[in-house]
Amino acid sequence: MGQSYDVIVVGAGPAGISVSIACANNGLKVLVIDKKTEEKIGDKVCGEAISKETTEIVAKELNIDTPKDNEINTQIENLVLRTSLPIDHIILPAIGYMINRHRYGQRLLKDAKRKGVNLLPETKVIKPIIEEKKVVGVLVKAESSKIEEYFASYVIDCSGLMAIIRTNLPDDFEPLLNNQLNKTDYAPCYREIIELEEKHDFNGKIVLQYEEDIPEPGYIWFFGDGEKKINCGTGFIKEGKNKDKSVKSVYFKAMEKYFPKGSYKVIDGRGDSVPIRPPLWNAVAPGLIVVGDAAFHADPLTAEGHGPAMLAGLHAGETATYAIRNNKHTLKDLWIYNKKVLKSFGAEHARSRILTLTLQKFGPKKLEFLLKRGVIKQADLTSAGILKKHSVFSYLERALRCFPRYYLLILMKKAIDASKNVARLCAVFPETPDNYIEWKIEVEKIYKKLSS
Ligand SMILES: Cc1cc2nc3c(=O)[nH]c(=O)nc-3n(C[C@H](O)[C@H](O)[C@H](O)COP(=O)(O)OP(=O)(O)OC[C@H]3O[C@@H](n4cnc5c(N)ncnc54)[C@H](O)[C@@H]3O)c2cc1C
Are β-strands 30-33 and 4-10 bridged in parallel, bridged antiparallel, or unpaired? Predict the structure, then answer.
């Protein structure tokens, strides 16, 4: 029998650190395990743009500092949508920071250790240990290649997209928890941090530049990262006609238009993948809570996942504490976590997925047409990527502008209805697991209809 804890957290990314601190603040004995060396924790391929509001909420709840000093590269004010036309079509408020993800991650780790969280670095978690239909611990491979067991009342899967615990659950473990990771659930990306010789015009902006040559969702991002630095990248789902396309080649081809090779210095260039689907509606099972990318908690349109991972980490910490203190461990007892995630960001992300699917359907050229003609306007979107409802008058006016491509307006109407219906269903998410299957069938019908 290995060592025993109240909570074992798999992964020391933003999700894992947030859960660990939340649990340690409540007096629980926590072990966080990461395969990286301690010095590498926090380093991840990322756009490095995070929301100020979310960061402040999390910092207050966890009683830690918001990003500060050299953890911040620059401030962000707007999210901008561009196409091949030389104008900013849509400018939405997006107050936040461009951070140095590694430095900020290292400081969060220090905060966790200061609060009493135990860290086991350079240790790869292999799979969950399951006894009597409950996750009771993890099997790990230490640096020495020795296989060891660790036990806990709760295992929290914060291992990122690959979700090492969730995806290694036997099929008959918990039918209400999806244990799959499909190719259509994520987009492989390539990202560079570049430095120019001259100042650029991306300062304070995170720009989504829609490009014809980039497979859906169809954009290359340019995030101003200081006067001369830009964080740029692209990504897409590798399926169908895009199955064999290289993300790196697509990225370099698109970059050539804006910053030809040799006109900039590459500070860092690497690939990784980001979730691009709605969140897991249920992310709990006996002895287990799934958080962050492991539960598809990133925004499907913008890939913003750092803040949501930390918010969900807070909810998971509260849920595990409640369960342990009150000896309440059934699925029904843990269900509150799903409700909290939906309320704090899940419902918004579910609607943001509708917008992503719609933009995929339009493609960059038709999107440009709609923006140029004013059929899609800035006021139609919220900064959370939510499509707003139109009045009848507004439909008529837009129909004139849409001439002769009326079918695009019909697609837009379908998207708005779908977005509204997803919001309606999220608001009535079942209070208990009892009615969950019926609810899930209803919500998934909406996505299926929009994709067909
Ligand atoms: C190209 C790209 C751009 C992005 N841009 C942004 C952005 O601008 N803003 C934003 O907010 N988000 C962005 N994201 C998303 C964001 O990075 C993630 O949503 C966020 O990191 C999720 O946090 P997490 O803790 O769930 O997972 P991760 O940060 O992936 O952390 C998982 C941790 O688990 C560890 N781990 C994995 N497997 C094991 C194992 N078997 N055993 C032990 N440890 C393990 C890993 O080493 C890692 O430390 C971007 C992502 C990508 C790929």
Answer: parallel
